Amino acid sequence: MIQGIADSLRRRFGKSPDPSQLLQQTLDAFRNPDADTLELIRRTIAFLRPRNGNDNGTAERQKALFEKLATDPDLLAAFRQHIIHFIASRRLVTFFTDSGILPGTGFFSEWWRILWNRILPEVPDERRLKDCLHVIYDHADDWRWLEQMPTEYSQHFWTLLAPDTELRNTDWLSIQEQILDSVLLLAHRVSGLGVDSELMRASPSFDDNSPRFISLSAEALEFVNAFRLSLDSAEPSTDDGSQLLVMADQCQETLAQIRKRALSIGTSLHLSYILTRSEQSLERLRELVAILTLASRREESAISTWSSFAHEAFLSENRRNSMRFYMTQLSRLMAVRVTENAARSGEHYICETKSDYSHMWRSAAGAGVLIGGMALLKIFAAGLNAPLFVEAFLFSMIYGLGFVTIYLLGLTVATKQPAMTAQTLASHLSDLKPNRAADLDRLVDLVAAVFRSQLAAIAGNVMLALPVAIALGWGISVWLGQPVVNMGKGAHLLSDLDPLSWAIPHAAIAGFFLFLSGLITGYFDNQAAYSDLGARIARLRWLRRLTGKDRAQRFGDYLQAHMGGIMGNFLFGCMLGSTGVIGTIFGLPLDIRHIAFSSANIGYALVSFDFALPLRALLWATLGIAAIGFTNLTVSFALALRTALGARRVQFEHWSPLLRAIWRRFRQQPWSFLLPPRE
């Protein structure tokens, strides 16, 4: 025992062995034909694996391994024999059909499997290659260095293992047989998923398209039978898979049509899941058919195709038990629909013309009037000293019902814009070609329009909320004969605006809620469309008796069109109203700061001090309001833009030319960021 501990300490803290010596020892073990191949492969991967986060020598170790094998034919033959026999002796079908593809168990079952695996790890079945990969790549973060592996290294490795002279041996024939079984299974899977009731509902002409899915299985069977005959006869297959690929393309076309239609009729988690699983299965079928047909014709591209497939499959298996990866993968299933809806909403918040600009001013000013009143109601509710639950409820109703009223009246709250306009900007970024000046100019036009629209909305909110607050505070004080807000409360309102206090973090919390409200809006718009809410409401018997059939239909259509906005605004108000109370309950410094309400609060503070505030205090509070507004907008816009780009899988890497173009426009036409162009 003591000796074991000493050896462990020596390995951990002692001098590291020479890499070349360790490589030689690792490869020499392959010369023993009776050695445990799984253990040999695991040790080889352990040699290649980075020692720590700062170890960048994996590529050099891979290169050294290839050089050792290339200079020793006997070692290469033994290495190849171990690896190929190991692969051929395992069950490969699950590896080919499941690795990198969403599981058939569904969202919640897979979620529970991953969670339960964290508590009690699964026992791998070493008869299956899929499970063996978890033994070989036994570090949860192996995917990080695998992802960085140069493509040419991976291709070189598989080239060493698959010389043309050995493609007809027993092991290779066994592998090809299992690939054929996988092709057949994938075709049957897509055929089954293709006639799912969710897909039928989402496809307007599914009766015309369903034969495509049914025929896919029949065509796959013909291809598999023809290819098996070629394996037995050592002659090229009479079926090159072209017809099977045509059927696969037709099925893919149908799935693309359904996905596109789901943007207008709504989608569900189940529908998105089926669509993604079907698309992944079709892509995998194409890869396997390409590997088989290219290898039979002795084409070099067969190795490249196999290498690319194996690399992605290995990555997927290593991340199979990652909750973070699974949730990210699944969040994308519905994110596009949600953000697409928000993008369409965002277009209404962008002032392209002078009339749009004037309308933005008027709608923001109207919202400023209501916000001035909502701020006073919140002050009254806080003065009741009600129990915390009652206080949270009152605050939530004031904010929630107030924002819903603003929305239904067609008015604009400035801070609601970024979460929407960011989605619109993301949709344009996904199509941007930075080398084309016209595309760049159009995007700069959009940025300028978003900027002036945001300024107009902020100015409209603030410039009306402040005087309305002053007028209400002064008028009610005169009517009551006493200050509506005492000096103590006024001082508290001013301290909340101190930029060196918790004002900025609290403004960031409000910005996060603004971002969430945008997603909530998109989600409920999607659900309303998917469930056909308008038609369902119109069928309510009591409503039809009360209002008549036509009015019930109009009411249903109106509610379906505005459900997202109503729920997004109401829940946003509930989040704002309850945060401070939750912070009090848990003893945490939680609260929110919103630029429009902060501007109203400074008006009530002025009234409480009988307009005798020192200029310094007034300017300091004004600076706080500006900082709060900037934080509100920046946080919500950044989060919304990041989410929208991620949902569209856009890796935008051209920020430098875009920023240069924006700066150039600002120097040449600064007024375009403040005022709309002349018509």
Question: Briefly, what is this?
Answer:
The longest helix is centred in the last third of the chain and has 44 residues, at 437-480.
Protein model, in words:
- This protein has about 675 residues and is an all-alpha fold.
- The protein has helices at about 1-15, 20-30, 35-50, 60-70, 75-90, 95-100, 105-120, 130-135, 140-145, 150-160, 170-195, 195-200, 205-235, 240-265, 270-295, 300-320, 325-345, 355-380, 390-410, 415-430, 435-480, 485-495, 505-530, 535-540, 540-545, 550-585, 595-610, 615-645, 655-670.
- Helix 2 packs antiparallel against helix 3.
- The protein starts with a helix and ends in an 11-residue tail after the last helix.
Key terms for this structure?
679 residues, mainly alpha, Glycerol uptake facilitator protein, 2 domains, elongated
Question: Could you outline the blueprint of secondary structure elements for this entry?
Answer:
Elements: H1 2-13, H2 19-28, H3 37-48, H4 58-70, H5 73-88, H6 93-98, H7 107-119, H8 129-136, H9 142-147, H10 151-161, H11 170-194, H12 197-202, H13 206-233, H14 242-265, H15 269-296, H16 301-318, H17 323-346, H18 354-382, H19 388-408, H20 417-429, H21 437-480, H22 487-495, H23 503-530, H24 533-538, H25 541-547, H26 549-586, H27 595-608, H28 615-647, H29 655-668
